[in-house]
Amino acid sequence: MKRNISPLMLGLIFLPFFYGCSSPITLNLKGKAFDLAPTKIVWFQIAGFSEEHLSLLKYAGSQANRKLSFENGHCFGKAWRHNIFKLRPNAFESFMSQMTGRRNFKSNCEDFRVKPFWLYMESGKKEVGIFERGPVKFSFPDLNSCDGEGQNFYQKKASYWFSLRKPLGKNEQTFHYLENTPFSKKGVYYDRSCHKKYCDSGFVSNIKSIYERWAKNKESFVFIIRDFKYLSELRKKNILKIKRMLFDLEEIYSFFLDKLDKQGDLLVLLTGASPSNFEYPLSGKSWFDFEKKGKNILYRRPSLMSPIVAAGASAENFCGLYHESEVFKRLLWKSSAGKLIE
């Protein structure tokens, strides 16, 4: 006797085959949700940083088999970093190019008249916070000496925290990593632990303290961590100090990667600028002296390309090889729309 099988029964029969043949969506062998625009962005801007510097962590002691937090990112890219004036722009000019999509920076007040990426993002209520450490010839602290337009685009729209070795004025707002009070006002804050010669606070303690207090209960934000001190120590050829700074960077980068599991709309981005190259010793005694004393290093010219590491929401946009000014476009790109957000 002939039996008719219902379409529903056929679907149930073949359902396991469909699931068995499908593959999970991954990037860098890690599960990944695509086409998800970030509403929260944490962006590390490390002047002087090159991905080869991570060898100082990878081969420290007997840790070669330990996986670095940077290896857990979704995407790695490289960016050409010339502009219309220079083959090797300075770190400030490179970071401005990454944030604005322009290539015409000169390290003067005109640079701040170009709108940054956060003014183009969909959420008009996006909060912006910028932490900056270390000396540089021209950067955000110079906003006060520039005209109103630049201050409107950058200063009035953001909160700033500067960890600089400078005497503090009486009317300047300050912060301290041991405090737990929220930052209720926008504006500029200076690290109260910094004196003329040194700062008592550390990179990790400052970032964790500021972030936890400032980002709490915010639905949409951009938090930029900008470090010029790293480049300063590279120029001094203080390799042991650089190694300690990399361990700090590893710790705080891991801190934000851990938040990806709970915040699917978070993008963690790291970019270099003016990366300083050096050549490691071969092996044996020369490597031992390098580990203990920072010797046997050959320093090279700054690289013509900068590294980019991305994890989380829209990280897939940052894979590949492109000019550093395209970081701006990739922050705003929505593949489902097929065009740049205007």
Characterize the structure shown.
- By secondary structure, this protein is of the alpha/beta class.
- Helices cover 27% and strands 23% of the residues.
- The chain contains nine helices and 16 strands.
- The protein has helices spanning 7-21, 55-58, 91-100, 148-155, 203-214, 229-235, 239-257, 284-293, 326-332; strands at residues 26-27, 30-31, 40-47, 75-80, 127-133, 159-163, 173-175, 187-191, 221-227, 266-273, 276-279, 298-302, 305-312, 320-323, 333-334, 339-340.
- The strands form four sheets. Strands 7-8-6-5-9-3-10-13-4-14 form a ten-stranded mixed sheet. It has a two-stranded antiparallel ribbon with strand order 1-2.
- β1 (26-27) and β2 (30-31) form a beta hairpin.
- α5 packs parallel to α7 (239-257).
- The longest helix is centred in the C-terminal third of the chain and has 19 residues, at 239-257.
- The radius of gyration is 23 Å and the shape is globular.
- The N and C termini lie far apart (66 Å).
Largest sheet entry: 10 strands, mixed
Q: What is the global morphology?
A: globular
Structural class: alpha/beta
Care to count the β-strands? 16
Mean pLDDT across all amino acids: 84
Radius of gyration: 23 Å
Which ranges are low-confidence, i.e. pLDDT below 50, for 5 or more consecutive residues?
A: 17-22
The side-by-side strand order for the widest beta sheet comes to: 7-8-6-5-9-3-10-13-4-14
